[in-house]
């Protein structure tokens, strides 16, 4: 018996021209925590609905670890959150998540990501999003993917435009004690097929399908 016998998600690999996305092992988690501690964005802004990046560096690192472990421990086929690390030339550069509830019926996923500050401006966020959209639409048969970004998060909105997302309404949140508008974005399978700027390959998915609520 190996880990893959009991946890086939550990064998899932998504590959883009510059990145490999995979479920992190303990060394990957240590690198990801250190990356979060070093900084994820300009501290003058808060681009996330959860203010985890406002915490001190050591707390940010711990929060990243606990979030990943919580995703593992709470995984259910009808309620899952897949947290992947993005690795470039052996170096962890960011985190990419994809999740769903009732996926077998709704066929809808949500995505979210962050890239270490030292790796901004290199188009890595686009490749990371491409990887999980390929997993969702080509691998799992999703019909919709949903994302969102605050009105001042131009970088995230630019990535979404590359894939053909369309406006899906506005949510109001409290960010650092003030109101902020989150613009919801939706991508259909048909729109995705027309906007695939990055080639992606997927390995190890077949054994994982029951874990996503699929046969």
From TrEMBL:
InterPro entries documented for this protein: Acyl_CoA_acyltransferase, GNAT_dom, Ribosomal_N-acetyltransferase
Signal sequence range: none
PROSITE patterns: GNAT
Ranges for domain N-acetyltransferase: 19-188
Top-level lineage group: Bacteria
SUPFAM superfamilies, A to Z: Acyl-CoA N-acyltransferases (Nat)
Protein name according to UniProt: GNAT family N-acetyltransferase
Organism: Streptomyces griseoaurantiacus
């Amino acid at each position: 018996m190996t880990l893959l016998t009991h946890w086939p998600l550990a064998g899932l690999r998504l590959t883009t021209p510059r990145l490999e996305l995979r479920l992190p092992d303990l060394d990957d988690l240590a690198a990801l925590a250190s990356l979060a501690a070093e900084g994820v964005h300009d501290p003058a802004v808060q681009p996330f609905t959860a203010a985890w990046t406002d915490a001190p560096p050591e707390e940010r690192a711990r929060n990243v670890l606990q979030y990943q472990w919580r995703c593992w421990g709470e995984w259910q086929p009808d309620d899952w959150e897949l947290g992947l690390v993005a690795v470039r030339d052996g170096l962890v550069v960011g985190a990419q998540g994809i999740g769903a509830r009732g996926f077998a019926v709704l066929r809808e996923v949500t995505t979210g990501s962050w890239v270490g500050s030292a790796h901004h401006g290199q188009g890595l966020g686009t490749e990371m999003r491409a990887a999980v959209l390929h997993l969702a639409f080509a691998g799992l048969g999703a019909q919709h993917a949903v994302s969102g970004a605050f009105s001042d998060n131009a970088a995230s909105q630019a990535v979404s435009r590359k894939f053909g997302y369309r406006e899906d309404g506005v949510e109001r949140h409290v960010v650092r004690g003030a109101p902020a508008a989150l613009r919801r974005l939706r991508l259909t399978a048909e729109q995705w097929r027309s906007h695939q700027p990055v080639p992606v390959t997927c390995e190890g998915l077949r054994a994982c399908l029951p874990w996503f609520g699929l046969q």
